[in-house]
Amino acid sequence: MDIHQVLEKTLSQDQNELKQALELLEQFSQTNLPEFLKTLSNVLSNQEANGYVRMAAGLQLKNQLTSKDEAVRQRLQQQWLGLPEDVRSTIKINTLNSLGTETGRPSASSQCIAYIAAIELPHNLWSNLIKLLTEHATRKENDEQIKVANLEAIGYICQEVPPELLISESNQILTAIVNNMGKAEPSTNVRLTATNALLNSLEFTKANFDTEQERHYIMQVVCEATQCPDIRVQVASLQCLVKIMSLYYVYMEQYMTAALFAITLQAIKSDQPEIALQGIEFWSNVCDEEIELSIEASEAAEQGRPPSRTSKFYAKGALGYLVPLLLKMLTNQDEDADEDEWNPCKAASVCLILLSTCVEDDIIPCVMPFITENIRKDDWHLREAAMMSFGSILEGPSTHVLVPIVEQALLTVINLMHDPSVIVRDTTTWVLSKICEQVSDVVLKPDTLKPVLDVLIEALKSEPRVAVNACWALNSLSEAANDFACNAEGVIENPRTNVLSAYFEVIVANLLQCTDRPDAVMSNLRSSAYEALMEMIKNSPQDNYAIVRQTTIIILERLNRLLSVESHGADQNITDLQSLLCSTLQSVLRKMTPEDAPKISDSIMNATISMLDYSSKANNLNEDALLVAGALSEILRKGFVNYFAAFQRYLLLGLVSYQNSQLCSVSIGVVADLCHALGEEMTPFCNDIMMTLMEVLSNNLVPRKIKTEVLSVFGDIALAIGGNFKQYLEAVLQTLLQATNVTFNRSCYEMVEYVNDLWESTLHAYTGIVQALKGDAEVPHPDVQLLQQHVVYINQFLLKVAEQHCEIPDNLISAAAGLIGDLISVFGAAMLPLIEQNAVQLMFARGKKSKFSKTRTVSIWVMREIKKVKSAGQPQPQASLFANQLHGTAAAESCSISIFKKQIAT
Length: 906
Known about the structure:
Keywords: Coiled coil, Cytoplasm, Protein transport, Repeat, Transport. The chain is an all-alpha fold. The chain contains 44 helices and no strands. Helix 15 (about 255-270) packs antiparallel against helix 16 and helix 37 packs parallel to helix 39 (about 810-825).
């Protein structure tokens, strides 16, 4: 069959034809991938071919370049780089030649160019691409289609390629974009495409915004574009202003009074919803920035330094102009609007919430008159707007300001729970949930608690949208009641009783009924009701234990009943319900006593194995079932060993589920749970688990986040099996050494986040290993000396971490300090060369001043241990060895799976 015919059939409505066509294309790609990709690019560039066929060719080519799945995308990128250079060159030429010749939108060739650029530019390939595109976009003789297509390609590239790779090209890109955005450009389509391209390029134009003249010109062009008669251009240019405010807040003062204030308020007043949305979004972003600046200022004050940036208080200055517009917008509700539809009315509420958080008490006088005036109006629009505005200002003001207002308003709120309008009742229930969250002390008073609970329980039987908010209110109440009881009894958790104890049985019974409602699939009600039930169970006091135990039986019965339905794998609703039941079962299990859990553990594990067996046959292992087993192990402790043999097969399957990173991550977490529960009882099962984990590390398809989790769980395994970890020691230490030698660019946020996770996991692993080999006795076990030759590498890593003490998060400082303390307890004064490094001392100093108690505690403890060592006498003999080797040690050879297999086999 001709390739054109096959591609045409990929657009067929006939599922059989579509399936056949896709199978043929898969065969072509498997038989000769280079030729297949060239053929697709030839069809894409063939101006005589049918437009839909060309689009289909572009889609298939795109599918060979990228994927939403990270692991698949990495594989496709390697696949492209492995193609012969002449093949890649032909495809790139064809896609470039296609620009401006396609009849469909969006341009398939523009997207393909961007995805190729995302692969090649990081490898310093296709270096002339930006120059080619910008030249075509600015050439005066080129027609509209060519300009639009080249600008589209630039926009897509800015979207797909990491910003740091485009900084050197920013002048070319901005020139091409801004020249086509101006009001002198006659084509609206060109202006629109250029404006969208600017939106995608703003992240790497910092150097241009740092230069006043260039910044003025960019802002002038964007502001002028907001006045374009075409709504699409207005929206796109307003989107640019929204993003500019987030990225370049520090430069916006002179533009705010001159243009931005008027432009954005004019946008909010627009009768075009998409324009009004962007005006509101602008001020929401202003609030976001100023909230962040307020937090930074508080942190700087705590640390005794000036903040790096300061707020201009735009939100506070705009209150008198902005709030009336937002309140008016709240009255424009559409009774028939979809619950999930984003509209100016909902955006106004969110903006009001952010304003309240930003300006705190100052929001009250701006909003309360509107509430008082409209709360009892006959028009439901006004009543609902009054309630919405009240709920929207509950997060910002201080408690002492809110409490008297809420006390005065609570009776009105309770009465409006019976309003004839479902929209008013929906919003009122939401307001009540916010009150329970923000000012729970008012609700928990004896004279108000029962009336509030009565209307909330009644609301559980109301329309799904109302019942959902009642669930959230009960969520917040249960947490508040637990906190209040813990404080009163002076305990951290599990108080004897709380103010909800007398109502607990009724609440649980009504939540269980709510989960079984025929309409529970609407508005996510079933999920919300189960989550509220889980929160009630989690926060239940001791005097409600009998009800918790009975609820466990009910949930288990529901799960078994569901498992008896043969078709459960084919119905998404039943699959979702199974997941909710598993989550609830985990929650109730954590409240069960060690005496009661064994009575139902057989039933739970039978259900768990049944779910795992069924799902494994469908190649989609049930992660919720794995989590149930993990929760059961926490309470059974060593008693879980009776189930391990039957369970292990599924656990190993989960660990190698590379295509499902969530499942893989859950499986690693369950391994950690089992280690904590079983301790040395894990030893007989560790060979298979360790072998599998090392295979995970060696697989290029596994996302790097999963690999960091594997490193961390090595520490849990070591702690569990103690000295038995010796057989895995050398292989694991070599693997950890590789992790410590990862280099990275701190200007790349994603890479910094990954390395922070990697370092934390590595520190956790080292800590577990040191503690495992050291043993629990006061005198370290001789096994710990096996680490002596590796301490130099560990110290180099710790020094690397310490040198970044200003940049790394607190949890890394705590982990590094803890490991140093453990090493001191083993090697004593031999650790002094590391400890005396200036970077390490500065890290400890920061740790001592941390706002997190764990970091402070660990840092202070380590410094005390250091004092003990220093006061004990001269350094131990190996101290000089550690000192000499602390810098410049060559990296050890990488760990191989074959060595590891040999070690554990013996």
